[in-house]
C-alpha cells in the first residue's frame, strides 16, 4: 500500500509516517519503480501496536529501543519482554492511581444533592468543603 493508504488506515499523517521511518521507528519501506514508498500489511499492525504504546504513555525513547530490538530479530525477545513488562508495571500503577482519584470524585459527587444546577441551594450558608 502507498503511504497515503497507510496514513488513512493507520490514522497517522504522512508526515508522521515519514518521520517515524527516518528515526527508525518504522522499517524503511520498499520503493516502487517511481520511487514511492510501498508498505505491506505488517506495517499497519506495527503502527497499531506503536499507537497503543504511545496511548499508554510509553516514552518515545523506549518505543525506539523496542523498535531497534525488534529489528535485530527474535533473539532480542527477552529484552523486549523485559521492556514491556516494566512498562506494564508503570501502566498498572497509573491505573491504580486513577482508580483512587475516581473513588474520590465519586465520593464528592455523592455528597451533593441531586437536582438541577439552577435549583436554589437548600441553605444560605456556604459549605465548608471544597
TrEMBL record:
It comes from the Bacteria. Residues 1-60 form the HTH merR-type domain. InterPro entries: DNA-bd_dom_put_sf, MerR-type_HTH_dom, MerR_fam, Tscrpt_reg_MerR_DNA-bd. The keyword Transcription applies. Residues 110-130 are annotated as: Disordered. GO terms for molecular function: DNA binding; DNA-binding transcription factor activity. The keyword Transcription regulation applies. Keywords: DNA-binding, Transcription, Transcription regulation. This is DNA-binding transcriptional MerR regulator. The lineage of its organism: Bacteria, Pseudomonadati, Pseudomonadota, Alphaproteobacteria, Rhodobacterales.
Amino acid at each position: 500500500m502507498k503511504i497515503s493508504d497507510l496514513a488513512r488506515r493507520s490514522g497517522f499523517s504522512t508526515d508522521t509516517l515519514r518521520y517515524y521511518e527516518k528515526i527508525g521507528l518504522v522499517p524503511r519501506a520498499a520503493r516502487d519503480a517511481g520511487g514511492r514508498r510501498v508498505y505491506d500489511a505488517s506495517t499497519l499492525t506495527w503502527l497499531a501496536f506503536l499507537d497503543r504504546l504511545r496511548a499508554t504513555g510509553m516514552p518515545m525513547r523506549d518505543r525506539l529501543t523496542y523498535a531497534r530490538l525488534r529489528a535485530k530479530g527474535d533473539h532480542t525477545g527477552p529484552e523486549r519482554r523485559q521492556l514491556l513488562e516494566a512498562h506494564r508495571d508503570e501502566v498498572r500503577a497509573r491505573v491504580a492511581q486513577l482508580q483512587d482519584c475516581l473513588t474520590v470524585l465519586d465520593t464528592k459527587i455523592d455528597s451533593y444533592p441531586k437536582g438541577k444546577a439552577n435549583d436554589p441551594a437548600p441553605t444560605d450558608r456556604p459549605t465548608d468543603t471544597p
